[in-house]
Design a protein that fits this description.
Blueprint (H helix, E strand, L loop, with lengths): L6 E3 L5 E7 L2 E12 L4 E9 L2 H15 E3 L2 H11 L8 H12 L5 H19 L9 H11 L13 H22 L25 H8 L5 H13 L3 H5 L6 E2 L4 E2 L3 E4 L9 E4 L8 E2 L2 H8 L17 H15 L8 H12 L4 H8 L3 H8 L4 H11 L1
Parallel strand pairs: 1-5
Antiparallel strand pairs: 1-3, 2-3, 3-4, 6-7, 7-10, 8-9
């Protein structure tokens, strides 16, 4: 280190980190300094065998190389010498962050991340320098986040939703730390706990679905809902189907793509790969085969013609027919749960379930294993 180096320092705050090396346990001491031309950076003094030795080195460094001044003076110095490359505001870096993700993840995922950033992060941190996001700021933000309510229902946002926001923010802060030598203090903050009552999974039995489908008098919706129930596939995968994907002679459907409305352009939808990216054709049952044999698709998309059916129209139609059939209201996605419940009731192992609905075994086990509870009781009873 150049003994003539000089810096500004506005606080005596520092942190120590413990490491295990070939020499044994050592301690590093980390603190922030500002160069004379106004650039703030993180400083680390490394490799001390005791915390006391690390602190002594820190005090010695400050005494020999730093001029103590107030934070405002430092910020003023920084602003006087700032250049575009020194702009480390969250809003600026977020734009660069999403640009860096463009070839790594799907546009739909980027769309979702951006939406959550715009709702929960940019309003709070947008014009804040990422180097100023310390533990105190993050604790305050996290406490506020965990009291957020859904504006439509008035209920607290789900634990899963809040965790997703926190995870996205942490990933961004880690990206900043890798590129700009900042610190992701969110990694040092525990995630809050919230006791929430687990909601029962909603689905229709086969009898309930039969009552529902009996009142569906529009052919395109009759076939659409039959396909959803008897394949358990995600709505996006079904809406992306084209006539070439359906092979009646082989009693199969090829789910190789998915439709998403979450686009980064002005396009109303985009066709992407499926979530699990499984390419094999999926066999279909005779009930669905007979339905598809009587259906004639018109246009590029199997359901909708030149453009796929819209989500709102499908949802309104589905709810209206459910009310007419006098069956309990469930979500469109719950038809997927209904198919899985049917498979499990018929004795299908989870590996087969995962393959048929195009999901991973791990996710299927996590989501649906509890549906085997009745089978467990039956097996135990047979033991005697």
């Amino acid at each position: 280190m150049n003994t003539d180096e000089r810096y500004y320092i506005s606080s005596n705050k520092f942190s120590t980190q413990e490491r295990i090396t070939k020499r044994g346990r050592v301690y590093d001491i980390i603190f922030r300094i500002v160069t004379l031309d106004g650039v703030e950076k993180q400083k680390k003094l490394s490799g001390f065998f005791t915390k006391g030795a690390a602190k002594e080195a820190y005090l010695d460094f400050v005494q020999q190389h730093c001029e103590l001044t107030k934070g405002k003076a430092i910020r003023k110095k920084k602003s006087e010498n700032a250049t575009p490359k020194d702009d480390l505001k969250v809003k600026t870096l977020a734009a660069l962050y999403f640009e860096s993700l463009s070839n790594q993840i799907k546009d739909a995922t980027i769309y979702e991340k951006k939406k959550l950033f715009d709702l929960f992060l940019i309003p709070r941190f947008g014009y804040m320098d990422v180097r100023d996001i310390n533990k105190q700021e993050l604790y305050k933000w996290q406490d506020e986040l965990w009291t957020t309510k859904n504006t439509k229902t008035g209920d607290y946002c789900s634990y899963r939703y809040l965790t997703k926001i926190r995870t996205y923010f942490s990933a961004f802060l880690t990206w900043c730390s890798e590129r700009y030598e900042t610190t992701n203090y969110l990694l040092q903050i525990k995630k809050p706990k919230r006791r929430t009552s687990k909601k029962d999974m909603q689905f229709w039995t086969r009898d309930e679905f039969n009552r529902f489908i009996a009142v569906v008098d529009k052919p395109v919706y009759h076939t659409l809902f039959m396909t959803m129930f008897y394949t358990g596939r995600r709505k996006g995968e079904i809406l992306a189907l084209t006539p070439n994907d359906v092979d009646l002679s082989k009693k199969s459907i090829s789910f190789t793509k998915s439709l998403t409305r979450k686009t980064l352009t002005k396009a109303p939808f985009e066709i992407t790969s499926t979530k699990a990216e499984k390419k094999a054709a999926t066999p279909i049952c005779d009930s669905l085969l007979q339905e598809l044999e009587q259906y004639t698709p018109i246009g590029d998309f199997y359901f909708g013609g030149d453009t796929p059916l819209t989500d709102n129209t499908i949802r309104r139609t589905f709810n209206a027919y459910a009310a007419k059939a006098n069956v309990k209201q469930i979500r469109i996605h719950d038809l997927r749960h209904s198919f899985v419940s049917l498979l499990i009731h018929l004795g299908a192992p989870l590996t087969v379930v995962a393959d048929l609905i195009g999901d991973t075994l791990a996710q299927v086990t996590k989501t649906y294993a509890h549906l085997y509870d009745e089978d467990k009781q039956s097996i135990i009873a047979k033991i005697g």
